[in-house]
Every structure is written in structure tokens, then in C-alpha cells.
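W.,

You were right to be curious about this one. When I first looked at the sequence I had no strong expectations either way, so I just let the prediction run and decided to look at it fresh. Below is the sequence, 57 residues in total, followed by the output.
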Amino acid sequence: MAFDKKLLEIVACPVCKGKLEFNKEAQQLICKADKLAYPINDGIPVLLENKAEPLAE
């Protein structure tokens, strides 16, 4: 199942409530403010802080 980019209009980072960007190659939603990457599993974003991975600097 593919991620529906229309979801980007309504989802937000659960930590800072900021915008998320879609990384198609890694299948992640990225919060640049918090430097976190949220996984997308089977087209469903997992927006849980404890599942996020820190972005490499």
C-alpha cells in the first residue's frame, strides 16, 4: 500500500505539532524542527514519539 501524500495536509509532528515532509526513498515522515523521522508501515504513518528515529546531522 502506498502512502497517500494528501495526508501531509492533516498530519503533524506529535512532538512539536509542526509540518512533516515525506521521504519517499526511506518511506518516512520527517520533522526538520525536531530532527526526527517517523516510519511508514504498509502506507500507514506511525506517528509515535517512541517509534521515531533521530536524523543524522
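Here's what jumped out at me. The chain has a mean pLDDT of 94. And, maybe more interesting for your project: The CA atoms of residues 35 and 57 lie 8 Å apart.

Coffee later to discuss?

I.
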